[in-house]
Predict the structure of Type-5 uracil-DNA glycosylase.
Amino acid sequence: MEPPAPPALPTRPDPNDPNDPNDPGYPAALAPRTRDLAALDALVVDCRACPRLVAWREETALTKRRAFREQEYWARPIPGFGPHDARLVLVGLAPAAHGGNRTGRIFTGDPSGDLLYASLHRLGLANRPESHWRDDGLRLRGVRITDPVRCAPPENKPSNTERDTCRPWIVREFEQLRPTVRAVVALGGFAWQAALPVLAAAGWRVPRPKPVFGHGAHAVLPAADGGAELHLYGCFHVSPRNTYTGRLTPAMVDDLLRTAATAAGLEPS
């Protein structure tokens, strides 16, 4: 009689599968286990799932920009920023290499953030008009800001695989926010396209055909469980490329955010 075959070795995670739940270090395995946003944010900052992004964010922190050569860069993934019971969520693209990757907070320390937080302050949704550092005392009222990609990418262009690898973080974030969130603003076409599958995974129904991005675009997403519907708005990204050319003005940002905040029930000023 032949001896019994040895037990099969466990299958190694497929490195080409960004959502392999068998990999204990990947967002797809970690994010669903978190019970609240505090736990989620704590795990996000330690993520090393995307080798190219890890290398870039850390290299940028070593080489630095001349103006910031005396500063110690954060050089880690950036969690969402804002209250855990937010009614309005702003979705960006990814941290800036010398902005959030340096300061440790989303849209902080760069021209995009200067415009965005100034607008939120004018609307009574932020306690101050500027954002310099992760612990500078800035507070948001009813608004949370997040990114579908949590690490600064080279040339501000994450790959599709990196976007998909990171997706479970933001899906879980929206799952945790479901009791309160009523409106979302996608800042740019990338954010809009990234947000649609995220919102579908988090419990809302995306219309068919899929809504098309544009500044002022608006779609209503019913809740899959019969709960509160979600308003999705499109806004040109608050990047210098748009603002310095006049494609996007502070007044346009104010108007769009005011509309979204009103839909969310925040009563902006």
